[in-house]
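Lecture 7, part 2: worked example. A protein chain together with zinc ion.
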Amino acid sequence: MSQILTPIGDAINSFLSDSHVQLLGRAIAVYIVFVWLACAYWAFRDAQSRTANPIVPYLAAILIILFTPVLFPFGLLLYRLLRPGETVAEANERAIAEEAMLREIEAQPHCANCDRRVEAEWLVCPTCRNQLRRLCPSCSRRVELDWSVCAWCGTDLVPPPVAASRPSASGRRGVRAGAGVADATQAAIAGGSLEFRADQQAGPTTLP
Ligand SMILES: [Zn+2]
Ligand SMILES: [Zn+2]
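Predicted complex, written out as structure tokens:
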């Protein structure tokens, strides 16, 4: 048995005592120590980007150092498990995005009567029938209720009747009354246009 083992031991001894092998072993050791220290520095910088606390980055680096050049991968794994999930920059970005979203929601127009969200182009609140805007009788564009003159075409606007902007207690009655008013106005418009036409027709005939 010893006759077989002795040559093997001699071969290993001669291999390890070889100057090239020794040099390679030292190079590998230096490389591992370099990676170990680089990982400690990486943990320091990573902790700096994830917390505003000035002590935590040093603790992260010390954790990697304490795990020695042989076991430092376990220290790295432990640090990865313990570190905060998001960086300070990511947390700031999320806070800014949330704030912008809140502002956008607040900027959305609301019905003055029922406080529900309404679209900027709606004329009437679909929930409580509150009048939000009206159409310019001249250019048919949407105008605000408190405008005294149309911003689009410059036509003087008559303030809307107070009763029309208030939701009536009985929807049916309100609709009927509205229809009555609409009928009356239509008749008035028809009458006015007839008169206008009559004037126009009468005008040129009387001139010569
Ligand atoms: Zn409403
Ligand atoms: Zn107009």
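The chain has three domains: 2-88, 111-166, 168-208. Residues 111, 113-114, 116, 125, 127-128, 130 surround zinc ion (ligand 1) (CB under 6 Å). Keep this in mind for problem set question 3.
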